[in-house]
Amino acid sequence: MHVSSRRCGLIGVFVTLLPGCSSPGRHEVVIYVSEDQVFAEPVLKSFESATGVAVRAVFDTEEAKSTGVVNRLLAEMGSPQADVYWANEPIRAQLLKEKGIATRYVSLNAAAIPAAFRDPDGYWTGFSARARVLLVNAHSRQPPASVEAYTDPAFRGRAAIANPLFGTTTAHAAALFAIWGDDRAQSFFDAVKENAVKITGSNGDSADLVAAGEADFALVDSDDAFNRQKQGKPVKMVLPDQAEGQVGAMLVPNAVLLVKGGPHPEEGKRLIDYLLSKEVERALAYADCAQIPLQAGVEAPPEVPRLERIKLMPVHYADVAHRMEAIQPYLKAWVGY
How confident is the model at residue 9, as a pLDDT? Predict the structure, then answer.
């Protein structure tokens, strides 16, 4: 339900309320959300049913994915309106920590999350991850096994990638710069462009090109891959760079943080505790997004990769956050802006 700021005191065009405007004396929590609404909303409704705390949620639009509510949090820094931010990746959660938007909160449930997916200072915690995968057309004669296939002349003009200025492709690019260093990473991306890669508007657009046979492969998020497989498209998902000496697959967890100075801090902490529960990780594993649980012992469908069986890219999300800002001029030039 879309409402005006006058009715509920929240400005902007992203507002969705669960279930409606607040009543005097009613416990409530305000959360800004970058995760897809179709996956996040059932989780928030479950929290509301379990606790009696009314949830007011503000979702990003697809066009402003990951940036709309972040910009709003920055704009509201002097008078915070949100209590919690649910990010669909940890990079912007780290940036909000560094901008002074987040406040430290270490949930008891955070102890079950591997340290690699938590801010060491306790300002944000990851949960339920997507993997960055290669979606490959089933009819491709030479299936790739590494992101470096983008530079293979055999795939000239036959590979797709989402615009690296946006979304998880930006984070993946920044991670490669952080791990490989500037010289190797720039040489790689220059070679990718020279190999006539198709630059698309989103991971979903890249996945559609592969499904239609207009590209042999694309680097996308695992939920994009699962979605096309569920549709019966002739595609398969490959976890990239799993061999010895290769860089490994990048994992992109959700991340949650408590907003500094938010109006309902105790309710915000309760919501964070809930989001970091095994119950939520199981729910997101069985949802259409098929996210990978980060906690041990969480039940998941057989098609969802197990964390312990993935060779992971050695990502430090704070380093990636810094690189993401630093490489923006290069990426803009690379795209042609």
Answer: 30
Side chain identity, residue 93: A
For residues 168 and 133, is the Cβ–Cβ distance under 8 A?
no
- Judge whether 201 and 216 are in contact, CB under 8 Å: no
pLDDT for the residue 59: 93
Predicted pLDDT of residue 68 = 78
Predicted confidence at residue 65, as pLDDT, reads 52
Residue whose C-alpha is closest to residue 172's, from 124, 198, 134, 136: 134
Which domains are assigned to the chain?
5-129+253-307 (3.40.190.10), 130-250+322-335 (3.40.190.10)
Q: Check residue 118 and report its DSSP letter.
A: B
Backbone dihedral region for residue 122 (phi beyond 0: left; psi -120 to 50: alpha; all else: beta): left
CB 167 within 8 A of CB 65: yes
Tokens of 147: 């992101």
Q: Cα separation of 163 and 184, whole Å? A: 20
Beta-strand relationship, 217-221 and 235-238? unpaired
CA proximity to 175, closest of 22, 323, 325:
323
316, amino acid identity: H
pTM above 0.85, yes or no: yes
Q: What does the alpha-carbon distance between residue 127 and residue 210 come to, in Å, rounded to a whole number?
A: 29
What parts of the chain have a pLDDT lower than 50?
1-25, 63-64
198, 159 in Cβ contact below 8 A? yes
The predicted pLDDT at position 62 comes to 53
Q: How far is CA 250 from CA 104, 139, 310, in A?
A: 26, 25, 10
Q: Which of 144, 181, 150, 145 is nearest to 164 (CA)?
A: 150
Q: How far apart are CA 190 and CA 18, in angstroms?
A: 46
| Tokens 């069985």 belong to residue | 286
Record the tokens describing residue 246, joined without a space.
């290769």
Per DSSP (E only), the strands in 20-174 are 28-33, 54-59, 84-87, 102-103, 125-137, 159-162
The pLDDT, as a whole number, for residue 166 is 87
